[in-house]
Amino acid sequence: MIIKKNLLITATLFFASSAMAGEFSLGAGAVFNESPYKGYNENTTAVPLISYEGDNFYVRQTTAGWAFWKDSKNELSLTASWMPLHFDPDDNDDHAMKQLDERKASVFVGGAYYRHESWGSLKFGVAGDAMDESGGVVGEITYFHPIRMERLTLIPAVGVFYYDESFNDYYYGVSGKESRHSGLNEYSAGDSWNPYVALTAKYQLTQNLFLNASAAYTVLPDDVKNSSMVDRDDSFVLMTGVSWRF
């Protein structure tokens, strides 16, 4: 199973733009995911929804950060994020894919900068694989603009992720040994830019109870979709859930 990072980014963007200092929320949700890998059916998975905003320290879903420079328009943070992207051949339905090696999830450590203006917000992020599973580096440029109504907040977003050659080759490459065992074509992936669009919504049912929803659509670049492990041109993820603000 894969939970794509773009859904977790939409949740992160929501928490970063809507939470007040000292606010903590906890909840549960379900993720519907279309995996780019062959042999995975569309699936739904339960996930926790976690948010905490302190004066400097924060937790935004799978990302923890320390904002060492912060004012009304700027935030510069050191970050540590759990990257849930992984491949488990034992969970796959395709015989050839079952012969491949496991690709593991990892922790990425880096930094993020937010710039908030009246016309919206920009996020720039970069991080490297701290556990050296892929040895890769990822980057992100995102624009998002919260639209706040009486009980409903909508956040449309558009952006692009950068994944370097090491990251892509670990998760989408097929070695010569794997090719001989599986019959899949050998493949080496290069770096890539992955554009995406997303929409996040939060509706306040009571003073403390909220409904949450996030949807994200990503276009897979040639260096991903040309892999013999992949049988899609795009990826879609939808999350719904409820959270309680303490």
UniProtKB/TrEMBL annotation:
InterPro entries with a match to the protein in the record: MipA
Entry-linked Gene3D superfamilies: 2.40.160.20
Signal peptide: 1-21
PANTHER family, sorted: MLTA-INTERACTING PROTEIN-RELATED
Similarity field: Belongs to the MipA/OmpV family.
Name of this chain's protein: MipA/OmpV family protein
Localization (cell): Cell outer membrane
Coiled coil: none
CC annotations in GO: cell outer membrane
GO terms, biological process: peptidoglycan biosynthetic process
